[in-house]
Amino acid sequence: MDSNEQNEIRDGFEGYRAWFECGSDHPGRWPLTEVMYRGPDDSLLTVQHDLERLKRRSAQAWRQLFDSRSHTTEWPYGSGVWGKRELVCPTVEDPNIVSMYEGHTNLFWGRRLGEDLGLDDLWLKLCGNTHTGSFKDLGMTVLVSVVQQMIREGSSIRAVACASTGDTSAALAAYAAYAKIPAIVLLPKDKISIAQLVQPLANGAITLALQTDFDGCMEIVKRITEDGEIYLANSMNSLRIEGQKTVGMEMVQQFDWQVPDWIIVPGGNLGNISALGKGLLEFLELGIIDRLPRLVCAQAERANPLYRSYQTDFEKYEPIHAEPTLASAIQIGNPVSINRAIKTLKRFNGIVEQATEQEIADAAAQGDLTGLFNCPHTGVALAVLKKLVTRGQIRRGERVIVISTAHGLKFTDFKVKYHAKELGEIRSHYDNQPIELAPDYDKVRDEILRQIDKRFGDS
Questions:
Q1: What pTM did the predictor assign?
Q2: Which end of the chain, N or C, is surrounded by fewer C-beta atoms within 10 Å?
Q3: Cα–Cα distance between 46 and 39 in angstroms, integer?
Q4: Which value, in Å, is the radius of gyration of the alpha carbons in the chain?
């Protein structure tokens, strides 16, 4: 490492730049503190970084810098997001960063599950092991930090708002409460779990349950945020993408900067797969990694507009009316980030596959039997993984990472009903129910031994 690189490490984020840019043939630039979400051509904005400035530091120096910050208590670099501040959001000043030291979620070695599926190197990125229990924290820390800076610089923003199927509302409510900024969440009535509903309520958000689906909530929140007094916090806001892209960056760092062969992610509004691709492409541009993985977007069969487009080689795309699905957070028929997702999948030689409700329920339950406690959206990804392995597209020796987007404790209703065989037409192939017995020692002992022989006798 030369003296210039050492000086840049000491200087931290100072001197690095980022801005909003639209995707037109004549892109304009706007500061990240501008209240806007789309460019003049109506395309979603992206956050662009001064890559030439970033390239002044060598790839090895970047790796060393990120490793030196990882899991520290130095503000704000102990966060898995802000530890990569120069590549995420260098324009926010220290006092305005709103962080709960999010990120740094663990990689779970799916050894037993991999053996069942015929894989030697299966891992799950447990994004649910974060403050509000989902990967949405990663994007929300960036967005709310920028909002806090805007307010302190004199902006007329009065509140932040989102439409949500659960996890986004939880993250927004928590980070807004931490910053003492009013939060507004619009939820589809009776379409999210109790655990997801109680999170924004507990954090004091203005919570509205609308008699519609997510797409209906999204249309209303876009109108509410048109005048700039209420700031939009959904993933059509590119600040969210900047935080969420650190998932992929963090995964390769956890493997000592080695790139996996495959990454599988559930897809609903499609901001997550877009973010994943953006972060890895920036790492590739800076030489921090030397190749790209293949990406797989997993959709529920009842909410599968991207899968349908993939069947036409992305030549056609039409929004659909998403039907109720166990994977409620991805019950989205008109995803905001559709164009970004298609562009990402093309660049990564990606695959889109779907899973039925039966496949989702069983895959989640099968995963739990190997030590996981995963959400139904992870079940979508696991069901798709099983299909790709069966078809031979994913091979035994390849390293596969499944992104588990939320904690299973948010979906205990789903799990209880699965094991009680109360999920309607779903057959519970892996159910496990309490065994009721009298408090008789002999009967208890005999039943325990019988169950051991029944369940583990051949192991």
A1: 0.93
A2: C
A3: 9
A4: 22
The single residue listed with the structure tokens 């120096």 is: 61
Looking at the DSSP assignment, which residues form a beta bridge with residue 46?
21
In degrees, to the nearest 5, what angle opens at C-alpha 189 toward C-alphas 234 and 265?
A: 45
User: Under a CB-based contact definition with an 8 Å cutoff, are residues 167 and 196 in contact?
Assistant: yes
In sequence order, what E strands does 220-293 have? Answer: 230-232, 262-266
- pLDDT tens, residue by residue, 374-404: 999 999 999 999 999 999 999 999 999 999 9
Q: Which two tokens stand for residue 315?
A: 């030549």
The pair of structure tokens assigned to 32 is 């990240």
DSSP E strands, 225-346: 230-232, 262-266, 294-300
CA–CA separation, 331 and 327 (whole Å)? 7
Give φ, ψ of 250 to 5 degrees: -70, -35
Burial grade of 27 (CB within 10 A; 0-12, 13-18, 19 or more) = middle
**Buried (b) or exposed (e) across 431-453, using 16+ Cβ within 10 A?**
eeeeeeeeeeeeeeeeeeeeeee
pLDDT in tens, 296-321: 999 999 999 999 999 999 999 999 99
Spatial CA neighbour of 425 closest among 324, 328, 307: 324
Q: How far apart are CA 23 and CA 43, in angstroms?
A: 6
Give ∠ CA 416-131-261 in degrees, rounded to 5: 80
The length of the chain, given as a count of residues: 459
